[in-house]
Amino acid sequence: MRIATTDSVLKSLFIHNRSLPTAERYTQIEQIERDWIIPKVAALTARTPMIGSRAQWVAALEELLASEQEGTPAGHYLAEKASRAQFTLVVREFALDGLTEAQNFFPIIPRLPIRAQMAVMRVLIDEFGCGNLQQTHSQLYRNLLTELELPLDLNRYLDHTSDETYAFLNVFYWLTQRAPDVEYFLGALAYLEASIPAAFTVQVRACERLGITHGRYYSEHVHIDDFHRKEMQLAIREYEAAHALDPTKLWIGALLLSELIGTAFEAAVRRAREEA
Ligand SMILES: [Fe+2]
Ligand SMILES: [Fe+2]
Questions:
Q1: Could you say which of 61, 87, 115, 213 has the lowest number of CB atoms within 10 Å?
Q2: CATH code for position 219
Q3: Residue 42 to residues 49, 62, 179, 180, 226: CA-CA distances in angstroms?
């Protein structure tokens, strides 16, 4: 695992992705992505068998989720054994994600047919608390950060975030704005929304066990991402109704996210155990 240092390219990619896109900045984004995500997707494509239909994609996703259902040793540790200090470090590790939650999904909207846009917008509206600040997922994360006495200023996390987490954060900027086909994004978000209800039971349990009262960020996801899972499958059906769908690209998107979030989570727990 590598903590992002001042010269970390994935950290600078995150900063570029969140800055006004000048031509010079955009060139740098494309250069970093050319060495990072393009070969990663190419390697995944080379080793992934073709998925012939949307039904096959749904079956493959269900199989992947079932294989992840029982969790990992890192998840079990966080749920049952981690100290409050260790849990706090994991929360700190994902602060850049929580504080900017779902902001990087918006650029996909103009690339989708209108009915698929509506399904993704329903997900986004929930992520933004239906317009109620107190219910936005980023505010739920801020409440958790406050309880754990962590800063609310995003810039304070830039030097404490690992490259594994930056990879997870940056991938959505590529998926929404530069991936050549939208199926990669649709498959990636369909996977993420479907995997979170089981994955976040770890943090829900840790909050209960450690007496952390602002764990609603996690429990809310366990509840609402079940709806988001369905909306994402609907978005994919609507996309298929309007365009020719390439289900293999949905599947590659899902595998990509599974790898990136899995690696980031494992690294976060390992780092928390080393540091606290
Ligand atoms: Fe969320
Ligand atoms: Fe969600």
A1: 213
A2: 1.20.910.10
A3: 13, 24, 12, 12, 31
